[in-house]
UniProtKB/TrEMBL annotation:
<dbReference type="GO" id="GO:0005525">
    <property type="term" value="F:GTP binding"/>
</dbReference>
<dbReference type="InterPro" id="IPR053254">
    <property type="entry name" value="Arf-like_GTPase"/>
</dbReference>
<keyword id="KW-0460">Magnesium</keyword>
<keyword id="KW-0342">GTP-binding</keyword>
<keyword id="KW-0479">Metal-binding</keyword>
<dbReference type="InterPro" id="IPR027417">
    <property type="entry name" value="P-loop_NTPase"/>
</dbReference>
<keyword id="KW-0547">Nucleotide-binding</keyword>
<feature type="region of interest" description="Disordered">
    <location>
        <begin position="60"/>
        <end position="152"/>
    </location>
</feature>
<feature type="binding site">
    <location>
        <position position="244"/>
    </location>
    <ligand>
        <name>Mg(2+)</name>
    </ligand>
</feature>
<feature type="region of interest" description="Disordered">
    <location>
        <begin position="1"/>
        <end position="26"/>
    </location>
</feature>
<dbReference type="InterPro" id="IPR006689">
    <property type="entry name" value="Small_GTPase_ARF/SAR"/>
</dbReference>
<protein>
    <submittedName>
        <fullName>Uncharacterized protein</fullName>
    </submittedName>
</protein>
<feature type="binding site">
    <location>
        <begin position="237"/>
        <end position="244"/>
    </location>
    <ligand>
        <name>GTP</name>
    </ligand>
</feature>
<feature type="binding site">
    <location>
        <position position="262"/>
    </location>
    <ligand>
        <name>Mg(2+)</name>
    </ligand>
</feature>
<dbReference type="GO" id="GO:0046872">
    <property type="term" value="F:metal ion binding"/>
</dbReference>
<feature type="binding site">
    <location>
        <begin position="338"/>
        <end position="341"/>
    </location>
    <ligand>
        <name>GTP</name>
    </ligand>
</feature>
<feature type="binding site">
    <location>
        <position position="284"/>
    </location>
    <ligand>
        <name>GTP</name>
    </ligand>
</feature>
Length: 399
């Protein structure tokens, strides 16, 4: 049961679709909805931050039964919904996901959507549904250290992989970009990069860290039509949050869980119909976090992944996120509340509160999306597709 949220953004959000088929939404709105009494929040107790507006998405339209938490002026304000007395709602749809509108308020903005359809019972419902559908075991404490990328998927997003752990010697890359590649030998590992632009993403310090750890780095190539002008997206979050797993899944459209921590970084190129995007994940372990901020000025978008079930470290995740973006008031941020399949996972409302997203979302586009990478090999879930589409739209808008 996907959960997504727009925490705040500009009124001319890309999430605001053209309407199209109707998406039933209902909800409530107010400058200080505390606690919320809308159907999506039956679990109660959490309330909303001041000026948060909530709305529950209906089951029609392209949501296909997903629920979500939309925070921010996703769409133009809508009309009052007579089905929920005293509530207003609005909805617009763009592509495969719908945005819930809001009115800007001085303190913050938000629109929450809960699970759609008959069982509109709040985040717990969504979580248990996910847990029931997940056949994958929870990650064990000792993950393999061998960090491997999946094999090329339809020759598009994946293709080049070099490094001493995988292949002892450099050899010509057989990926689509072929001869465009420049090989860089860095001590015991190799970085393969299709063009100087992508190469420039890699900080020398990070290369050293990776070399010291004997890690092998992956810079996946642009597609053959690559222009060298990708749209960089930074992917950050604490170690174990699921960054690599999410990226694998976004790139291949198949669920592929990572089995080992990222010792340096991963750069992955994802092509959509509209554009080519370069995702750069920097590992979340403590020693790598100092590199995070180096990239913020260079990127169009920040994706911040949190482990929704790792309650103990949410304060750390919050602190790091706030520190990261405190000096950048306009960088769009997409927070992925990952591992929604786990029984103990916080729903996105709780994640919103735990990360204090209303404190950092006033002037920027900010989204909160519940994701999970549950069943290896299966097609990615609809909320992951939504996330991909949202990211694409944000990047397009940021250009
Ligand atoms: N249950 C569950 N496990 C997940 C999910 N996403 C990732 N995992 C598991 O969580 C562990 C960490 O995933 P990674 O993708 O390596 O996390 P990461 O954020 O890249 O971690 P670092 O590279 O160390 O910063 C792995 O065992 C994954 O299989 C998810 O949605 N649900
Ligand atoms: Mg990783």
């Amino acid at each position: 049961m996907a959960l997504w949220a727009r925490v705040s953004s500009q009124p001319d959000s890309p999430a605001a679709g053209d309407g199209g088929e109707a998406v039933r939404t209902q909800g409530c709105r107010g400058s200080a909805v505390r606690p919320c009494s809308c159907p999506c929040l039956e679990r109660g107790g959490h309330g909303h931050p001041p000026a948060v507006r909530c709305a529950v998405g209906g089951g029609a339209g392209r949501h296909r039964g997903r629920g979500g938490l939309g925070l921010g002026p996703l769409a133009e304000p809508g009309s009052a919904d007579s089905r929920v007395p005293g509530c207003r709602h609005s909805s617009r749809r763009s592509g495969t996901w719908a945005g819930l509108g809001q009115r800007a308020t001085p303190l913050g903005r938000a629109a929450l959507t809960g699970p759609h359809g008959a069982s509109r019972r709040g985040c717990d419902t969504g979580r248990s549904a996910l847990a029931a559908s997940s056949a994958a075991p929870e990650p064990g404490p000792g993950r393999s250290r061998a960090h491997r990328f999946p094999p090329p998927a339809s020759g598009r997003a994946w293709g080049c992989r070099l490094g001493p752990m995988a292949r002892p010697a450099l050899r010509p890359c057989a990926c689509a970009a072929g001869a465009q590649h420049r090989l860089h030998r860095e001590g015991s590992f190799a970085v393969l990069s299709p063009d100087p632009l992508l190469s420039s993403l890699i900080p020398p310090g990070l290369l050293s860290v990776a070399r010291a750890r004997g890690a092998w780095l992956n810079v996946l190539p642009l597609a053959s039509q690559g222009t060298g002008h990708g749209k960089q997206i930074l992917v950050l979050g604490l170690d174990g949050a699921g960054k690599t797993s999410v990226l694998h899944s976004l790139a291949t459209n198949r669920v592929k869980r990572s089995v080992a921590p990222t010792e340096g970084f991963n750069a992955i190129c994802v092509n959509t119909e509209e554009l080519q995007m370069e995702f750069l994940e920097i590992g979340g372990s403590e020693s790598l976090r100092s590199y995070w901020k180096m990239y913020l000025p260079k990127v169009l978008l920040l994706i911040y992944v949190v482990d929704s079930a790792d309650h103990a470290r949410l304060p750390v995740a919050k602190q790091l996120l706030h520190q990261l973006i405190q000096n950048n008031s306009t960088l769009p941020v997409v927070v992925l509340a990952n591992k929604q399949d786990l029984e103990g996972a916080y729903c996105i409302t709780d994640i919103h509160d735990a990360l204090a997203l209303s404190d950092i979302g006033d002037n920027r586009k900010m989204f909160l999306i519940g994701t999970h990478v549950a069943e290896d090999g299966s097609e990615i879930s609809s909320n992951m597709k939504d996330a991909k589409e949202l990211i694409t739209q944000l990047v397009l808008e940021a250009q």
